[in-house]
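[worker-b] picked up task from shared queue
[worker-b] task type: protein-ligand structure
[worker-b] ligand name resolved to 2-acetamido-2-deoxy-beta-D-glucopyranose; SMILES cross-checked against name lookup, match
[worker-b] sequence length check passed
[worker-b] input payload:
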Amino acid sequence: MASGTAIILLLAAGLLAAEAAAPWWKTASFYQIYPRSFKDSTGNGIGDLNGVTEKLEYLKEIGVTATWPSPFLKSPMADFGYDIEDFKAVDPLFGTMDDFDRMMTRAKQLNVKIILDFVPNHSSDECDWFKRSAAGEAKYKDYYIWHPGFVENGVRRPPTNWVSVFRGSAWEWHEGRQEYYLHQFHKKQPDFNFRNPVVREEMNNVLRFWLERGVDGFRVDAIYHAFEVEADANGNYPDEPRNDWTNDPDEYGYTHKIYTVDQPETPHLVYEWRQILEDFQAQHGGDERILMVETWSPIEIVMHYYGNATAEGAQIPFNFQLISNLHRDSDAYHYEYLINNWLSLMPSGKSANWVIGNHDKNRVGSRFGADRVDLFNILLLTLPGCSITYQGEELGMLDAYISWADTVDPQACNGAEANYMAMSRDPARTPMQWSDEKFAGFTTGSSTWLPVAQDYAQRNVRKERGVSLSHLNIFKRLQQLRQEPSMQQGNAEIKAVSKYVLAVKRHMSGSYVYISLFNIFNSIENVNLNGVFSGLPDNFQYALVTDKSIRQLSDKVSAGSVTLMPHESIVLRSTEML
Ligand SMILES: *[C@@H]1O[C@H](CO)[C@@H](O)[C@H](O)[C@H]1NC(C)=O
Ligand SMILES: CC(=O)N[C@H]1CO[C@H](CO)[C@@H](O)[C@@H]1O
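[worker-b] inference finished, payload out:
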């Protein structure tokens, strides 16, 4: 057969591949579930995996592509599951491995992807590996970071001045082994030694284990703490330089973190994990598995997690620019800068992602004002790339008032009654509001692990389904708009029209032009879009309105004059394809 035919076949295959090329995650809508508070299936007042399974259809209803439930692996719960005892087992509080498998089966039927929250920086001190390491068993001896410390004038002191995030020395003396172990967090959370290839392989096996069980990827918790500086030839570690703004050696800010976070090796650990995913893919086929990594590092460092010139990294290094830097008074120029800065620093060929809420932050409506709930949902869902929504934000859930007596967050309980509210993450972790039934339909039991928010009778899924411009229905409408070619693959231009108004234009040649407009403040604004974007058609119509709008869906409007009501956000669509 002529080699020409083979070339044509190859070309055809190439074209098909290119058409199917946009991987599922690039414009996905991710949804973070906090399993303790999503749905309780047993009546004990704590959400569980069967509860998640029961509500997967709801995720489908609101157009979610993928969900990452916060950790549900076996844990003594010193830090609500971020301290893992067994990396390959479900905690009985959340269910069983069979429940997990059922959740996966249902998710696959509905085509909702499941991402596992993977917590690699440490294990629990009750983890079998730590016990064996402490006992000096050969294989496990160097699984964690051990050092005998120093004795000066008969007094023992820790190896360095490093401080734990939870206050006090990051080194804890272990009587059994007669050495200190390193813990950057709680003393019940010893840090792994990722310089030990056996530990890396052990973790790689954890990834393989869950891939085999069907997960679509991993969300990697606080990766920037994974490595510490390498020990010198004598096995010693250097002190970190002092910060001059505190003299309290127990305060986390006492030292400047140059040896305990953001070490140059850390992104390479992520590249290694990506390779595990690729290898699995090559063997098993199916849709692309992904890595989402959490790192609260400077933006230039975050970019390394995308990969380097020769190795792929995480598809989604979390973009915390909006969640970290925006506040109530931020003007449109600030929004514009933060968004464009990410897009311009991102290596070419990579995709953006946007985060505005999570289980560690106050509710969006409480941080920015309830009048801006739709604004942030519209922003997240019309920017290019993928959106990441924390459960309940689609309803506009607000922080609940939690009394001191009801407070359970260790971060708040460790402090004093006088200022616990500033520390507590409980207000954003209250049970999901499904209906106006008792306990908001979250449980059939007689109590809940955290109180249900006081406003649940007005703000819940069932009620919002029935109100045409509810936050929930706007969220669903946005998901439909996101399917449009201009939103999926179009270019994006993000511009501040003034201090008050932000504009996002999405367009792909041969399709409609979409423009989202955000009136951030409390005044009426008039915008001439021709002064903002060049080459616009004259006529637009409203593709999305909110309860702030005086115009209706499909009303016509000229590009030369668009009026925005206080806090109004809208999406316009050109009347013609361009
Ligand atoms: C990229 O990372 C890989 C894997 O860690 C490494 O082997 C390679 O040298 C790096 N390439 C560049 C150009 O830095
Ligand atoms: C890498 C990692 O797992 N980071 C986590 C380390 O532990 C603390 C305390 O549990 C978590 O809050 C971090 O997110």
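[worker-b] attaching auto-annotations
[worker-b] The CA atoms of residues 345 and 412 lie 36 Å apart.
[worker-b] releasing lock
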